């Protein structure tokens, strides 16, 4: 009944590395990917810090071998890099041998190109190829094409900062219900002027390194990233003699129904999401060995999430940390980025330190894990919360 | 596995469809390439304090949701699943032009918040105080069908009993201009009556919101059974007919069992071929129905097709304006819907009377 | 000061889409948040932009807004003292 869904591959590109190995190295070395912004010309460049990926668009196009007339947004480019790594890692040679789907998540979509050419489109037709690439489903279609997925189920989820966690959840459900034999799930979001200015109006961008769960936290750093997992049915795993790297054991989605952007003071939605995930996994709170928290370092999130964690775990809160200090908040991709980090934690039996923390929050007495720690892990819980009250939790496990 | 039923329907569209006691009694013959929704009086459904910051897409979505809940005689649902191709486009345009026009200064948060794709689903949850499952799909012409499939899976497995499912999109001025530039919207004048025979590039664009309560329990208000929904990202033209027959076979039906086929023709000469493939072969002897000449093309136009099919099944009537051909049909039992946009994101949906 | 208060009321109604209200409906000492006009945290952010755009006053922490935006009286007083345009 509560059997987990097998994960057989993963891929990632973020501010702390261009693949899984590089990301893990940075995590264990406490190496942040946060800097001043270099690729977008914004008047806020001295007021914000971001998690940027080194590659330029043309370097990414080269890496992927795209023709010069391609109309990929950066979201599509990053997504393709990560999805290809995941498929290669899973040892897939013939993608259409099994019923294979793709569920991606994005909030930015093709906005990075739209914001560059918004008025210019009307003046001349040089960049008209990008107009059709604006909508959120475009990057998903391009990733599917690059992976060779044809005549199959592909879709895109956009629930703000919880999007990719929901993509993982849907993928697991599609495998469990037999709709698909194999599904590539994850998300991609690139940096854009639109999101920078959007979060700026909400006054939740920190002007320095973000400090999750710190009393004096000043807000988040935006980041860009993409990550994907390959989920496969037990039948495929058996037939292909696959190595399973972890299982999607539980998942929960709930809505805070409190405010358009803010989380409720006591994290009602977050509490519900964690409880549902435990229920689907057939676990109690005591079964969780580590929580990779959403921990965006905004005043509102960390208080609300911390209180929700206490509501679910009571006196026995396991080690928890946020990895946003490494990567920045990668929005729709965050759930997939942190899924990769959760699986790496399970594989290597390690807990990543919550960087930049100095002062205990006064509203409660739980403290994130501050030092790199080795601990035998069987299960990891990963939280992702977003605007529109969207709260999601996914639980990863070593055993099915 | 439980069966899944459509227990209520509501649609705000470029036709006067929000009054469910009627079924296209009067048809508006639009004479433009861009057709706007005929809107209900929002104040009758949304308190002014809540409505003051709502984008058009949110208002349409919230009101259509409330109508659907009312018809299903429900106050609460277990989940809310929304599909939207572009989200609240006007606010996205407003925020982006403000960034450019004011050189990133004096920007206000409201239009940014509304530009987030899941803002409609979030606002519906707020209005209904629904803390349950809440997803938003944003996958072009399969945005709504993704929501439909998700809801169906949950209801079949009894993970939920009642789910609100809908699709919503709004027109935005700047985007309309851009879509005209690349001929997604027709350049020449077109009307409701001439769209489907136009034989030129592009389509007429529209907007709207259609919401449904899906349930695994049948009740007096039930319109139809949702038998199956299937999506394909790509589909070669010459495989459409074969695949349709296959889809029906998997549902233990043959071409002859289909009383009406509802097609997403939008008058685009480059892509209506997919539909013609069906009407000229397997379904040449079947009653064919089209709807995009009434509502225009948009990413979530297909739920308007579901609204129409549901109406036909419940009222056992078929307004002439929908007919692509004229076949003698006794009663309507099985309806197949097929949609695609520009050769991508194809969907097959099967409805049955109950 | 009276002119400023009138201007504030009109701008608030326009900026925050308080469609059914006129300036006469807002008293100078009405609570803008909470029981009075029931404005919320997003409105507060809108008002912060209004201070910047119309009066050249920059707030960096939304918390500073709480006392300033208590009523039309407190807003007008703060603006007269700190305005640079």
Task: Give a quick rundown of the structure.
Chain A is α/β, with parallel strands linked by helices and about 400 residues long. Chain A has 13 helices and 15 strands. Chain A has 2 domains: about 240 residues, Peroxisomal Thiolase, Chain A, domain 1 (3-Layer(aba) Sandwich), CATH 3.40.47; about 150 residues, Thiolase/Chalcone synthase (Peroxisomal Thiolase, Chain A, domain 1).
Structure description:
- The complex is a heterotrimer of chains A (400), B (354) and C (85).
- Chain A has helices spanning 20-28, 57-64, 74-89, 111-117, 120-123, 137-147, 163-176, 193-201, 234-239, 268-281, 299-313, 324-327, 334-348, and strands at 5-13, 34-35, 50-51, 100-105, 154-157, 182-189, 222-223, 225-232, 246-255, 290-292, 319-321, 350-351, 373-374, 379-386, 390-397.
- Chain A has 400 residues and is α/β, with parallel strands linked by helices.
- In chain A, the strands form 3 sheets. Chain A has a 10-stranded mixed sheet with strand order 5-4-6-8-1-9-15-14-10-11, with helices on both faces.
- The mean pLDDT of chain A is 97.
- Chain B has helices at 48-51, 56-71, 89-101, 109-115, 119-128, 143-156, 173-181, 240-250, 273-279, 292-295, 302-315; strands at residues 5-12, 79-83, 133-137, 162-169, 208-215, 224-234, 260-263, 287-290, 334-341, 344-352.
- The radius of gyration of chain B is 19 Å and the shape is globular.
- Chain C is 52% helix and 0% strand.
- The chains are: A alpha/beta (400), B alpha/beta (354), C mainly alpha (85).
- Chains in contact: A-B, A-C, B-C.
- Chains A and B meet through helix 4, helix 6, strand 5, helix 7 and helix 8 of A and helix 3, helix 4, helix 5, strand 3 and helix 6 of B.
Order of helices and strands of chain A: EHEEHHEHHHEHEHEEHEHEHEHHEEEE
Weakly predicted, low-confidence segments of chain B: none
CATH architecture grouping of the largest domain in chain B: 3-Layer(aba) Sandwich
What kind of sheet is the major sheet of chain A? 10 strands, mixed
CATH class category label of the largest domain in chain B: Alpha Beta
**Looking across the biggest beta sheet of chain A, what order are the strands in?**
5-4-6-8-1-9-15-14-10-11
Number of strands of chain A: 15
Unreliable stretches of chain A, pLDDT < 50, 5 or more residues? none
Name the chain pair whose interface involves the most residues: A-B, 68 and 66 residues
Mean pLDDT of chain A: 97
Number of beta strands of chain B: 10
Distance from first to last alpha carbon of chain B: 17 Å
Cα distance spanning the termini of chain A:
11 Å
Number of helices of chain B: 11
């Amino acid at each position: 009944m509560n059997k987990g869904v097998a994960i057989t591959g993963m891929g990632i590109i973020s501010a702390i590395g261009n693949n899984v190995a590089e990301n893990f190295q940075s995590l264990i070395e406490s190496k942040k990917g946060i800097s001043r912004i270099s690729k977008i010309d914004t008047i806020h460049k001295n007021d914000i810090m971001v998690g940027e990926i080194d590659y330029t668009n043309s370097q990414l196009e080269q890496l992927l071998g795209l023709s010069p007339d391609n109309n990929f947004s950066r979201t599509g480019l990053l997504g393709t890099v990560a999805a290809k790594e995941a498929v290669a890692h899973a040892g897939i040679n013939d993608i259409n041998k099994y019923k294979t789907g793709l569920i991606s998540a994005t909030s930015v979509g093709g906005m990075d190109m739209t914001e560059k050419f918004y008025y210019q489109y009307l003046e001349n037709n040089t960049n008209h190829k990008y107009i059709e690439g604006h909508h959120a489903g475009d990057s998903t279609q391009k990733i599917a094409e690059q992976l060779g997925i044809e005549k199959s189920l592909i879709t895109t989820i956009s629930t703000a900062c919880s999007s990719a966690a929901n993509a993982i959840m849907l993928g697991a459900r599609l495998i469990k219900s037999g709709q698909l034999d194999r599904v590539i799930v994850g998300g991609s979001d690139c940096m854009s002027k639109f999101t920078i200015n959007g979060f700026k109006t909400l006054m939740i961008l920190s002007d320095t390194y973000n400090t999750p769960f710190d009393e004096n936290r000043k807000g988040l750093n935006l980041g860009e990233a993409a990550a994907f997992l390959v989920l496969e049915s037990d039948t495929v795993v058996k037939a292909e003699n696959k190595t399973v790297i972890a299982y999607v054991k539980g998942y929960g989605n709930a809505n805070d129904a409190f405010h358009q952007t803010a989380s409720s003071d006591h994290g009602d939605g977050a509490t519900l999401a964690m409880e549902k995930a435990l229920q689907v996994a057939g676990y109690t709170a005591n079964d969780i060995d580590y929580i990779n928290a959403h921990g965006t370092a905004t005043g509102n999130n960390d208080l609300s999430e911390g209180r929700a964690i206490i509501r679910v775990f009571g006196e026995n809160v396991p080690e928890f940390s946020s990895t946003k200090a490494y990567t920045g908040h990668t929005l729709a991709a965050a759930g997939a980025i942190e899924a990769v980090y959760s699986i790496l934690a399970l594989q290597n039996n390690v807990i990543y330190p919550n960087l930049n923390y100095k002062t205990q929050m006064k509203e409660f007495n739980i403290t994130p894990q501050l030092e790199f720690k080795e601990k035998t892990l069987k299960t990891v819980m990963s939280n992702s919360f977003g605007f529109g009250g969207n709260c999601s939790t996914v639980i990863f496990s070593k055993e099915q | 596995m439980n069966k899944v039923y459509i227990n209520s329907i509501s649609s705000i569209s470029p036709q006067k469809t929000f009054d469910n006691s009627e079924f296209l009694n009067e048809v508006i013959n639009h004479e433009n390439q861009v057709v706007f929704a005929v809107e209900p009086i929002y104040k009758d459904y949304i308190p002014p304090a809540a409505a003051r910051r709502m984008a058009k897409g949110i208002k349409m979505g919230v009101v259509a949701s409330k109508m659907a809940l009312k018809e299903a005689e429900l106050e609460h649902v277990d989940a809310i699943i929304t599909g939207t191709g572009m989200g609240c486009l006007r606010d996205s345009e407003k925020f982006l032009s403000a960034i450019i026009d004011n050189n990133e200064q004096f920007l206000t948060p409201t239009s940014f918040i509304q530009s987030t794709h899941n803002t409609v689903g979030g606002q519906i949850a707020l209005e209904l105080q629904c803390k349950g499952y809440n997803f938003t799909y944003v996958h072009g012409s399969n945005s709504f069908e993704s929501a439909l499939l998700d809801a169906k899976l949950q209801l079949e497995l009894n993970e939920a009993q009642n789910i609100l499912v809908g699709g919503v999109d709004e027109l935005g001025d700047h985007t309309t201009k851009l879509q005209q530039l690349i001929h997604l919207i027709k350049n020449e004048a077109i009307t409701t009556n001439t769209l489907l025979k136009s034989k030129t590039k592009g389509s007429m664009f529209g907007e709207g919101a259609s919401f449904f309560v899906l349930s695994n329990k049948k009740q007096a208000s039930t319109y139809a059974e949702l038998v199956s929904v299937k999506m394909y990202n790509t589909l070669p033209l010459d495989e459409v007919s074969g695949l349709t027959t296959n889809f029906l076979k998997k549902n233990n039906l043959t071409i002859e069992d289909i009383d009406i086929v509802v097609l997403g023709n939008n008058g685009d000469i480059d892509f209506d071929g997919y539909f013609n493939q069906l009407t000229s072969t397997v379904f040449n002897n079947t009653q064919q129905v089209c709807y995009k000449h009434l509502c225009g093309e948009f990413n979530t136009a297909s739920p308007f097709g579901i609204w129409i099919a549901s109406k036909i099944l419940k009222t056992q009537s078929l307004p002439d304006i929908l007919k692509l051909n004229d076949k003698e049909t006794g009663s309507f039992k099985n309806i197949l819907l097929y949609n695609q946009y520009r050769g991508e994101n194809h969907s097959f949906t099967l409805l049955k009377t109950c | 000061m009276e002119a400023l208060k009138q201007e504030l009321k009109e701008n608030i109604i326009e900026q925050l889409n308080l469609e059914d209200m006129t300036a006469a409906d807002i008293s100078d000492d009405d609570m803008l948040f909470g029981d009075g006009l029931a404005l919320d945290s997003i409105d507060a952010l809108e008002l912060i932009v209004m201070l910047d755009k119309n009066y050249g006053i920059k707030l960096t922490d939304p918390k500073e807004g709480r006392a300033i935006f208590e009523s039309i009286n407190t807003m007008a007083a703060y603006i007269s003292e700190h305005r640079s345009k």
